[in-house]
Amino acid sequence: MTAPVTLTLAEFGDEYARCSVxxxxxxxxxxxxxIHRDGNRVLIRRDDADAWLESKRIxxxxxxxxxxxxxxxxxxxxxxxxxT
Length: 84
Fold this sequence. Notes:
It contains 4 helices and 3 strands. The chain has one domain. The chain is α+β, with helices and mostly antiparallel strands.
């Protein structure tokens, strides 16, 4: 069975955003998530949801390992002790 092409606000919240319908409505209003109306139903096309989410993705710079940072600080302290 193939996945439906459209999602209700509740389905989008459950499958994509892990949030409530109220939050999905806020996202639609504030962040411009594209919707389509079918009578009284408000639907989101999967293709639109995927494209919108991809456009909102923020690339995070790689974070230094906490262990590497501890080792770096320990080496600096050891060098400072040798110099004094």
